Amino acid sequence: MKNEMINHYVKLVSDVFSKDAEVKEQQLCQRFLRKCPTPLAVKRLSRSEREEMREWAPEMASLFAAIELGRLVAKSHEEIIGHAYSSVELGRSMVAQFQGEEQESICIACTDIHNEIIDWKVLFIGGGCECVTYPDKIFQYALQCSAHGIVMIHNHPTGDIRPSNQDDSFTRRLERGCEIIGIHLLDFMIVGRDSYYSWREDKSIFKK
Hints:
The protein is of the alpha+beta class. The chain is built from nine helices and five strands; from the N terminus they run ααααααββαβαββα. It has a five-stranded mixed sheet, sandwiched between helices.
């Protein structure tokens, strides 16, 4: 499977420079593949490396534009506002939403009295393994949306969906705060690479 992916990647790069290209373009293609032999190598390029590679030839600008277009297409998702979701449906949607993200983020989904999502927003973006969260900002946003309930979604780029001690502590604080201001904490979700954790589902299992 890995070899098929690499072969497909090499073919796509070759197609960008055209198989029937002149020697100069063919050499440019080979130079690019030496620098970036895999798709992951392209993803790991630093900004300075990208700028340096753009200086190789005018064709490089088109290549990086195509790569950026691919990223935008991959990160585009169906709009979730206006639809009612179970935790399973929302969890799957958020796995797709955060797929490929390398930074921890916190997203808040606001719901109406029927638990349908009326608005949602990424409120915080952190580093590769930590995202500082401020409850007052969450409540401020929820009140601005006239939310009846909220769902907090937090991604773990490592793929590990087990809640940390910090996650557990923050969820309890958030639950107490919601009780004080009269907003329902419907769920706290942790999203990994291909799965999710639901605080609400976990509580239901624990009660049984």
